[in-house]
Specification:
- The chain has twelve helices and 17 strands.
- It is about 30% helix and about 20% strand.
- The chain has two domains: about 200 residues, DHBP synthase, CATH 3.90.870; about 100 residues, 3-Layer(aba) Sandwich (Rossmann fold), CATH 3.40.50.
- It is globular.
- The protein is an alpha/beta fold and about 325 residues long.
Length: about 325
């Protein structure tokens, strides 16, 4: 299939392709999404095919504004209004009870639907022009790191989708926070751009899903149970002091070992491939750089990537969550 690469003037074309049942990679403030008309079951089915996504993993429905919630969801609690007022458009996805008009193909058979209003001017324009809710998972092949630039989308999806809309690099760099409002107290199923602290400032009773707290619990967001965000290489997540980390990494063979480190630390691993993904004291820079760096290190020569576990404060919680998933759930203490 011929894939069109669209630039900032391509919103109308993207909307047209979506309305015609096509797949379009769309920029959002979190990661790129692989969009299809959420009411078109055939188009939605193609998302699963193209990504190689397990059928039991539901999709997020993207809308142009908070007013669209009532069209696709029912029994919407007052908490949802308070949250959309504060965080939409933005990196917060709300799980609510679906109306029958939302295809089960989108929700993978669930009675709830994940709703999100992304904060990227180009994609908001696409959503407005398309006039339909857009089902979109992250625009990577299943299991691979999410896509945060149009070049990543080209790498994973070229020749498989109708178009890729280039909206520049994603500002947040990690997927949205998923908050389940179909239960009380509200529960964070996936940490992301909106932090637990920010949510609790609006809804103090907000809880973290046990699947994120206790290692023996399976997370409720079906997608979180799969190995994820993974480059070809083994990713080893290490917790401990900076010097111990340097010593540990330097004791490993140079060939095949790479290091994902903090800015300014690159010089501490002579002979090894070291790549900084952000600043230790600024977790939002780590979030923004993580997937691009994982992809950059994903070369046949790299067999092992060592990363020191960042602090879980603020958006750092989401960074650690993704690193842990990429490391197969394991943190090694130094
Ligand atoms: O930032 C984002 O959320 C990006 C951009 C493109 O919007 N999208 C994204 O989609 O990350 P995806 O498909 O990669 O992750 C969606 C997650 C999956 O873990 C899925 O299981 C969960 O949301 N999910 C979707 N619908 C759900 C539901 N009704 N209940 C619980 N979890 C749900
Ligand atoms: Mg994903």
């Amino acid at each position: 299939m011929k894939t069109e690469l669209l630039d900032a003037s391509g919103a109308a074309r993207a909307a047209e392709l979506l309305r015609a049942g096509g797949l379009v990679a769309l920029p959002t403030e979190t990661v790129y999404g692989l969009g299809a008309n959420g009411l078109d079951e055939k188009a939605v089915a193609r998302i699963f095919e193209v990504k190689g996504r397990p059928q039991d993993n539901p999709l997020i429905l993207h809308v142009a504004s908070a007013e669209d919630l009532d069209r696709w969801c029912r029994d919407i609690p007052a908490e949802a209004r308070a949250l959309t007022e504060r965080f939409w458009p933005g990196p917060l996805t709300l799980v609510l009870r679906r109306r029958p008009s939302v295809p089960l193909r989108v929700t993978a058979g669930l009675e709830t639907v994940a709703m999100r209003c992304p904060d990227h001017p180009l994609t908001r324009e696409v959503l407005r022009l398309a006039g339909v809710p857009v089902a979109a998972p992250s625009a990577n092949l299943s299991g691979k790191p999410s896509t945060t630039t149009a070049a990543h989308c080209v790498h994973d999806l070229w020749g498989k989708v109708e178009a890729i809309l280039d909206g520049g690099p994603c500002r947040v760099g990690l997927e949205s926070t998923i908050l389940d409002l179909s239960v009380f107290p509200p529960r964070v199923l996936r940490p992301g751009g909106v932090t637990l602290e920010q949510l609790r400032a609006v809804l103090p009773e907000t809880e973290l899903d046990p699947g994120l707290v206790r290692p023996d619990e399976i997370p409720k967001a079906p997608g979180m149970k799969y190995r994820h965000y993974s480059p070809q290489a083994e990713l080893r997540l290490l917790r401990g002091e900076k010097e111990r980390f340097f010593d540990y990494v330097n004791s490993l063979p140079d060939a095949g070992t790479a290091v994902l480190c903090y800015a300014g630390e690159e010089g501490n691993f002579p002979g090894k491939r070291a790549l900084a993904y952000g600043r230790e004291d600024a977790p939002e820079t780590l979030a923004a750089g993580l997937f691009d760096s994982l992809r950059a290190l994903d070369t046949p020569e790299v067999a092992l990537i060592c990363v020191r576990c960042p602090s879980e404060e603020g958006v750092g919680r989401a960074v650690v969550n993704r690193l842990k998933k990429a490391a197969g759930g394991k943190i090694t203490c130094l």
